[in-house]
Amino acid sequence: MTSVSWRAAKCTRRDWLKSALAATAGLAAAPPSGFAAAVDSEALVPARAITSGPRFHWFGYYDKLEFDPTNRYVLSNEVEFEHRTPAASDRIQVGMVDIQDGDKWIPLGKSDAWGWQQGCMLQWRPGTEREVLWNDREDGRFVCHILDVKTGAKRTLPKPVYSVSPDGKWAVTADFARIQAMRPGYGYQGIPDPHADQKTPQDSGIWRLNLETGDSRLIVSLAEVVKILHQGEDLRPHWNYFNHLLINPDGTRFIFLHRWRKEIATPAGRSLGGFITRMFTANLDGSDLHVLDPSGHTSHFIWRDPQHVCAWTKPEGRKAAFYLFEDQTANVEIVGDGVMAVNGHNTYVPVGSGTEWILNDTYPDRTRRQTPYLFHVPTGRRVELGHFYLPPEYQGEWRCDLHPRCSRDGRTVAIDSPHGGTGRQVWLLDISRIVG
Fold this sequence. Notes:
Elements (H helix, E strand, L loop, with lengths): L2 H9 L1 H12 L22 E3 L6 E3 L14 E7 L12 E7 L5 E8 L11 E2 L6 E8 L2 E8 L5 E4 L5 E2 L5 E4 L2 H7 L22 E6 L5 E6 H4 L13 E9 L5 E14 L2 E15 L6 E4 L7 E5 L2 E6 L7 E6 L5 E4 L11 E2 L8 E4 L8 E2 L2 E4 L4 E4 L3 E2 L15 E2 L5 E6 L7 E6 L1 H4 L1
């Protein structure tokens, strides 16, 4: 933050603190136009649902662009059922909500390649004002559609996407059939893993995809990565896969999680145990592989800037918490010690310097309430945005995590939640009075 903006922040600190305390106590000022109290009265900031039944709506993962550049159109998936694993024949609709026209639902297309946690990777294409993209299954392969929402022009790329570069020209993608075989619910149904009998296939891994031409090439293979020992252990006897890719803010490097599952002998035969994880970073061509977190415990993460990653993990000899890693170094420090004390889906709010506020959430507590909150890094303050009940039927693969996502201006947060009584729907929370 510059000295000028810091002085401005100091001048408004009293107002900020009053707003934060009021929000935490459920006494926030009257909501701006278009917001109302949540149905269950547990929202601590102005909140409203922008989708409704009888169908169910959600966006999915927390590290994608859900709002268009004007913050008027909000993307969502739509489905007709809940509480079971999707079959290959289960189709969802994708669309956007016009929050300036009575929350009008605007259909955009369909997808046959999706899961409860990450949807179909629906997102606005970075660097454009009116293009969206999402994954689908057509003609026996997973693909990606790119749609101009104004003209309706659509083109289809021969591979799906996972994470898109900030300029919208490139994507990195994983083997969704392999992911589905290794951890159902995070890959896609409909195409069997072609390497189901191989623990470290040479032809499975991470591809770089040109979003203009559709050209792609394998840049990191499973066979390549398992050559790097894990704390002295040879990983070739285990079942390996990649998941959770994310390109950094300047498009130079990306993160991926390397996971593996060990075979366990049981009275009924051999089965797979839980997964173990290490975090890698690499250049966008797959070069300069670096084990950023070798602990085996990496969970949710986000790039703070091109060189730093904030991730939930448990480094050797330290407690589980959020830590800030400096890429391609051994530098690491704890973040939000004792305040962000549980795992959640963390992002930085795009206001001010872009590093002052962390948006996060919790998994259900003992009363099955989930809490989205803001953490103010300079002061260590936590401001809770609400407590939203998750009915017990939402569990396992088809649970409904809040997965909080910010608008482009950092003033609004979208969450997926069934607390309103009509199944999972997309809700907006107004945080403008808190972040200023």
